[in-house]
Amino acid sequence: MTNRALRRWFVVHKWTSLVCTLFLLIVCVTGLPLLFSEQIWDTFVGDDDPPYEVLPTGTPNASLDVIVDKARALYPGQIITSVNPDDDEPAVLVSMAPSWQALKDDENYPDRHSGHWIKFDARTAKVLEQSRPADAPKEPRTWTGIIMGICNRLHTSLFAYLPGRLFLGAMGGVFVASLISGTVLYGRFMKRLPFGSVRTDRASRLTWLDLHNLLGVATLVWATVVGFTGLVNELQTPLFGLWRVTDVRQILKPYANLPVPAQDHLSSVQAAFDTAAKAAPGNEVTGLSFPGASFGSPVHYVLWTRGATPLRARLFTPVLVDARTGELTGAYPMPWYLRFLEISRPLHFGDYGGMPLKILWALLDIVVIGVLVSGLVLWAGKRKIATDARLRALGYDLDNVDDAAVPGLTAETVR
Amino acid sequence: MNAVAPEIPIQSQPVSALRPSVVVWPWPIALGLLTIFGLLSALLGQHGVWLALSWAALSIPFIVTVICLIRAWRRPSSKGGLS
């Protein structure tokens, strides 16, 4: 490699790193508690739900129609918006609202929550728990809740919603560019050094450089994978939006202008679950939204099914069942870009291999923080050298200059 | 931010001729392959031996890093590298 090419790579590495380092530090640090959020919630907040009734194993689940009827009887005149069997507990969550219009109006009033839910025992169809009424005094927020909320919003969007997500996604892309250029530089600088050398007996600059190289190359592939999948995750809103305006719109076109039928004339919810299970073989049905939901069709139940095998567990396939007749309209596997997004999620979250994998994720994350910090130290050290050289060129004898004079000079003259 | 760019011209022929050139890539490639294997084996296998293999494979890059650091600071006069 010519020195000129090397210098170009160096400039690329320096600037891509400088652009993303601060944000990566934020993301790396806030990612640590998020990684263990389940454990943190269990430890500091706990679960005060009443225990489940002990029933003989193999007790069949109650029909979802029974549960839906009970929910309607509890809130006559209201609509049901969705029915979601729990993933790992014998419970069914039924969400309700005064009307679709009321839910839509909520968007304009951040304090208003007209939707509410009821949790049923899936086997006995007894009510287990209900959401707090909208007019009840708000539950005091716990410290855990506040801290985890801050971490989550900083990590995903820097408190800036969609623009923040897209910005962090862009930082993910810059990070990958910085990793690639860093790898090229590593190849050049490690030519005369055995792997893993950390020279501690010479200038501290060399120690930092060797540390940066060692920590960086050891976590290179992991950081690339987590950085890139983070970028893909940040694109979820536009990707889902794309799907909605293309495929989904096409599928729903024939029904778009039909009125939403009254809920007491709709076909069986349990039958819709059974139909969906047959329409997407190998998938399990995780939930149903009623006709009229903002993303769905006015006359269809939308059933969400997902792969039953671990690899496909995050690949969702929606199934449409005509709520007027109970007949299957179709199953619609998601397009490739959303499948790619769903595969990217576990690789970013590290939540697919038990506690040891999470701990490894945390350790590698800490090593990456080391890479970022050593990079910053190298850059800051270089700036000091450059500044000193320029000051000397201007005729300042740095050994004798009054300390107080230097900061002013660096700020005004040198930059 | 390997801020050593200005030193490149200095580090030209005379110095490098004295030092043996070592192969740069075997270790990084091995650690990278282990990482990829670790990431995928838990994702595709999801249970039993595949999980254990994933934990083992992903911990090796971390362990190697720690060993290098310990060696460097235990014997400050040496370069502390693995060869």
Supply the key terms.
heterodimer; A: 415 residues; alpha+beta; eight-stranded antiparallel β-sheet; 13 helices; 54% helix; elongated; disordered C terminus; B: 83 residues; mainly alpha; 64% helix
Descriptive overview:
- The complex is a heterodimer of chains A (415) and B (83).
- With 415 residues, chain A is an alpha+beta fold.
- Chain A has 3 domains: 154 residues, no CATH class; 78 residues; 115 residues, no CATH class.
- Helices cover 54% and strands 12% of the residues of chain A.
- Chain A is built from 13 helices and 8 strands.
- Chain A has an 8-stranded antiparallel beta sheet.
- With 83 residues, chain B is mostly helical.
- Chain B has one domain.
- Chain B has 3 helices and no strands.
- In chain B, helix 2 runs antiparallel to helix 3.
- Chain B is elongated and about 45 Å long.
- Chain B starts with 12 loop residues before the first helix and ends in a 9-residue tail after the last helix.
- The N terminus of chain B is likely disordered.
- At the A-B interface, helix 1, helix 6, helix 7, helix 8 and helix 12 of A face helix 2 and helix 3 of B.
- Chain B: Keywords: Membrane, Transmembrane, Transmembrane helix.
Topology (elements, then pairings):
The complex is a heterodimer of chains A (415) and B (83).
Chain A: H1 3-35, H2 37-44, H3 64-74, E1 79-85, E2 91-97, H4 100-106, E3 116-121, E4 127-130, H5 143-157, H6 161-189, H7 204-218, H8 220-234, H9 236-252, H10 269-279, E5 283-289, E6 300-307, E7 316-322, E8 328-331, H11 336-349, H12 354-393, H13 405-414
Antiparallel strand pairs in A: 1-2, 1-5, 2-3, 3-4, 5-6, 6-7, 7-8
Helix pairs in contact in A: 1-5, 1-6, 1-12, 6-8, 7-12, 8-11
Chain B: H1 13-18, H2 26-45, H3 48-74
